[in-house]
Automatic annotation (TrEMBL):
Protein name (database record): small monomeric GTPase
EC number: 3.6.5.2
Superkingdom, taxonomy of origin: Eukaryota
UniProt keyword Hydrolase present: yes
SUPFAM superfamilies to which the protein is assigned, alphabetical: P-loop containing nucleoside triphosphate hydrolases (SSF52540)
Compartments, record wording: Cell membrane
Length: 211
């Protein structure tokens, strides 16, 4: 069972995923590795690219609709718009760039502002873990930030295709968990409303009998 907001294409549930992070952290490289199993070793600043890939996660098929966004300031005007439409977010920084780590926290705050009280599925990703000698952000710092975000954390290497699938699969699991919890709550709410209306109806029936 899916919530009313869920979209489908050819019978497949479409998951709208958005990648956020400073320019050059490896959003496009990670996306290309996930979608096409190839590594792009040059930086061609993205304006906005969309990719789709079908995947079976925990025995359930889905279509991942991935929005690879611009990290560079001059292209970030659309940010709030895709923050509104995303169902799940990959917030990314590079372990070799402390500034990108600080920006990750900023991106999370912006999502919260745009989406208010909603629980948003997300994953924090520290990319370029193959560049250990250039590391500026420790694993512990990443873990601490993820704990603050209350979300899973991965150190990845798009270059080595390390943990790439885990990032996307974990995010889909998060979206599904949110969906199931939401449906459960909605069903509970429906049951409660039904019970309340039965109580009210019975009350008026009793009143009528007395009159
Ligand atoms: N060593 C190493 N280099 C990486 C890795 N991921 C990306 N790169 C390199 O980092 C540079 C920037 O990668 P992109 O994927 O273009 O970065 P981006 O986040 O999409 O940048 P914008 O589109 O400008 O926001 C490229 O030269 C990549 O080859 C990685 O895991 N390890
Ligand atoms: Mg890019």
């Amino acid at each position: 069972m899916h919530p009313p907001s869920a979209t489908f294409l050819g019978g497949l549930r479409v998951y709208k995923i958005v990648l956020l992070g400073e320019g050059g952290v490896g959003k496009s490289a990670l996306t290309m590795q996930f979608v096409s199993h190839c590594y792009v070793d040059y930086h061609d600043p993205t304006i906005e690219d969309a990719y789709q890939r079908q995947a079976v996660i925990d025995g359930e098929s889905g279509l991942l609709d991935i929005l690879d966004t611009a990290g560079q300031q001059e292209f970030t005007a659309m940010r709030e718009q895709y923050m509104r439409s995303g169902e799940g977010f990959v917030i990314m920084y590079s372990i070799t760039d402390r500034q990108s780590f600080l920006e990750a926290a900023q991106a999370k705050r912006q999502i919260e502002r745009v989406r208010r009280a909603e629980v948003i599925p997300m994953v924090l990703v520290a990319n370029k873990m193959d560049l250990e000698s250039k590391r500026e952000v420790t694993t512990e710092e990443g873990q601490e930030l993820a704990a603050q975000f209350d979300c899973p954390f991965f150190e990845t290497s798009a270059a080595l295709r390390h943990c790439v699938d885990d990032v996307f699969h974990t995010l889909i699991r998060q979206i599904r968990t949110k969906e199931r919890l939401g449906m459960k709550l909605a069903q509970k709410d429906k049951k409660l409303r039904h019970r309340a209306s039965t109580i009210v109806q019975n009350f008026f029936r009793r009143q009528k009998k007395r009159v």
